[in-house]
Specification:
Glycosyltransferase; alpha+beta; 34% helix; 11-stranded antiparallel beta sheet; Maltose phosphorylase, domain 3; 15 helices; 19% strand; 24 strands
């Protein structure tokens, strides 16, 4: 496509410079602009985002709401602000999704629309760099007076959109706008030693992306400054009201001293993403300790089996440990997107595969569930059970989720590979091509896979350095018994399936380090690497502390969590129990819900007796589908956690 140049300023090509100059970071994700997605499962979804989802975002951003009109009015210095004070952020997230989509699905009309929006955004920027349509239209004298008004939150999303668009197109206009705004913020706060607590975190992670993109140390320093402002009481009497206390915004204690997850889930994920990124660059021991401790609190005591987080709707976030109701689960789509961000940074920080295991769980289940197969209907929350009163919607008043899930799926190339000095790391098994610099040479690989429906993957080496070089292949966590101390465990007695690697048809021995199979050899063009990750249905149970799932099991196949939906079972999904010992049957159904693996399991159904005076117990199979595709055939009953005894057969969970 004319105009799409896909320059790789972020990612491996530029971060190697940062590393050599000042960064202590040793592992870097490969930027989406360097990755060509060919995957059968994901390519169709990315095309749907590039068309249906982006069209929905454009329609509501430009026509059905006043988001773009606000920029036009701000540029003209006249007019009334429309919508909510944080609506600028939705424009930026939509632009970010456009940028990623232009890489995967070039479209001159989308690029033209993006350029039109960018011109309007640039026209609205004030001479001193400030940019926020709410304050420009309601009273510029009030800017930077209310920590909760999301000024720097919007700035963060502007930064992310600008970097993505620059990576894809090489065009700098939005990037220059973002840099001027960041320089304004830096002068107002850090350089002036003025205290400030961001009401909704986001700018921290965005500043770190800008640091990696430009190699400008001041953006790293500003990200650290934002983190260091928290937990010191600067928001007291300014940001907190009767229902928002410091814990709601992770501001009760300094970030380095935090040990437990609290408050609003999305704000937490965005902040900890930035903190983990800072820790990876600086090797700050206190940040590293805090991030690992909080991660364990999230994953071991507060995460749903779908990778969703945030059980409570009242604070859009976390409640008591082990209190994870299913039907009332909030599990905001944006929070699962945040889990992908944070766990990628934790992997960058440590090189441990367990963080990619959680990323994968959130991606394939908690996040992907937020988007309909048609691409134009969305979940804000993602419950694990429904009596038929829950369904996706066309849009929301607070519309953070549609553009957020759009940008995540469109940016999938950011999460597949990582690179270190002498290794390429395969994190996600997603069909794709990549070519990475190795000093003055290159390592290039083409990946084909049956994932997530089949556990066979092939890597074809298309270029290799002359010296020995490592491939580090993630051994999926779902192949193993879940981590001790975690919320969930296999309730069946099957052995852990064998992870196998073959090179040119011959099995190879490998050492496993931190969840990666390390294959170290002198590669040559044409080498064929086969990765076998056997998939089998596993029964999952919860720890006893999680009372909502007592006497229930969930089923998982590969990375996918399954559910039973009424649409496949005579419109009922609450009238059966699963026997203790069940033989599961897996079948790929190409004509169902875009092509999925279904699981048939024996069950005992309760049916009304012929005389209408009682109930009969009937042996009848039940069909289960992947959680992410439920509710694509209308509202109906659904549950993830399946009862194993009659005393647990409840509708109200």
């Amino acid at each position: 496509m004319k105009g799409i140049v896909c320059i790789a300023i972020a990612g491996v090509l530029s971060t190697s410079v940062v590393q050599s100059q000042e960064s202590l970071q040793k592992l870097y994700p490969v930027n989406f602009s360097q990755v060509n997605i060919t995957d059968e499962f994901w390519s169709g979804r990315m095309h749907t985002v590039a068309t249906s989802t982006l069209n929905a975002c454009i329609l509501y951003t430009e026509t059905k709401t006043g988001r773009i009109r606000n920029f036009e009015k701000a540029a003209a210095h006249s007019g009334k602000h429309e919508g909510i004070y944080f609506d600028d952020s939705d424009v930026y997230k939509a632009l970010e999704a456009m940028a990623y989509s232009l890489k995967n699905n070039p479209d001159p009309a989308i690029e033209k629309k993006a350029d039109e929006w960018i011109a309007k955004i640039a026209a609205a920027q004030l001479p001193d760099g400030y940019l926020n349509t709410y304050y420009e239209l309601t009273g510029i004298n009030n800017r930077w007076t209310d920590m909760e008004k999301h000024e720097d939150y919007c700035a963060g999303h502007l930064i992310e959109a600008a970097i993505a668009y620059h990576n894809t197109t090489g065009k700098r206009q939005l990037l220059d706008v973002a840099i001027r705004f960041v320089n304004h913020i830096d002068s107002v706060f850090r350089k002036s030693n003025r205290h400030w607590v961001s009401g909704h975190q986001e700018i921290e992670l965005a500043l770190m992306r800008l640091y990696h993109h430009t190699n400008e140390r001041k953006y790293l320093e500003l990200a650290q400054w934002y983190l260091d402002q928290r937990g010191k009481g600067y928001g007291k009497g300014v940001i907190w009201d009767e229902w928002k206390d410091p814990s709601y915004c992770q501001d009760a204690v300094p970030v380095k001293d935090q040990k437990e997850i609290t408050g609003h889930a999305v704000r937490a994920m965005y902040m900890y993403t930035g903190a983990a990124d800072v820790a990876a660059v600086t090797n700050d021991a206190d940040y590293i300790k805090a991030m690992k401790t909080i991660w364990e609190d999230v994953v071991y005591r507060n995460m749903y089996i779908t990778g969703g987080i945030g059980a409570e709707g009242k604070n859009e976030g976390f409640g008591e440990d082990y209190d994870l109701p299913n039907e009332s689960a909030y599990c905001e789509t944006c929070a699962s997107v945040g889990m992908v961000f944070w766990n990628q940074r934790m992997n960058m920080l440590t090189g441990e595969a367990k963080y990619i295991d959680v990323l994968e769980r959130s991606l394939y289940n908690g996040a992907l569930d937020g988007l309909s197969l048609s691409g134009d209907r969305f979940f804000y929350g993602n419950p694990l059970a429904s009596t038929g009163n829950y369904q996706r919607r066309e849009w929301f008043g607070t519309a953070c989720c549609p553009s957020n899930i759009a940008r995540l799926i469109a940016s999938l190339g950011n999460y597949i590979y990582s690179s270190s000095e002498n290794a390429t790391w395969i994190n996600l098994y997603i069909g794709s091509d990549v070519k990475l610099p190795v000093k003055k040479e290159f390592f290039a690989v083409s990946m084909q896979t049956g994932y997530p429906w089949k556990g066979n993957t092939t890597l074809t080496i298309t270029a290799a350095p002359k010296k020995p070089y490592q491939l580090r292949l993630r051994v999926p966590g779902w192949l193993k018994e879940p981590t001790p101390g975690g919320l969930y465990y296999y309730s069946d007695k099957k052995e852990n399936p064998l992870f196998e690697v073959r090179v040119n048809g011959k099995p190879v021995l490998f050492k496993e380090e931190q969840g990666y199979a390390v294959v170290d050899r002198a590669w040559k063009k044409g080498d064929l690497v086969e990765i076998i990750t056997p998939m089998d249905v596993r029964r999952i149970a919860s720890r006893t502390e999680l009372k909502q799932n007592t006497g229930r099991i969930a089923i998982q196949y590969g990375p996918m969590v399954y559910c039973v939906e009424g649409a496949d079972n005579q419109q009922q999904a609450m009238n059966f129990i699963v026997p203790d010992r069940s033989d599961f049957s897996v079948q790929y159904e190409p004509g169902l819900l875009g092509g999925i693996n279904t699981i048939t399991l024996p069950a005992k159904l309760l049916v009304i007796s012929a005389d209408g005076q009682g109930v009969d117990l009937v042996n009848k199979p039940v069909k289960a589908i992947p959680f992410f595709v439920w509710n694509n055939r209308g509202a109906g009953e659904m549950q993830v956690w399946l009862p194993t005894a009659f005393r647990e057969l409840k509708v109200n969970q």
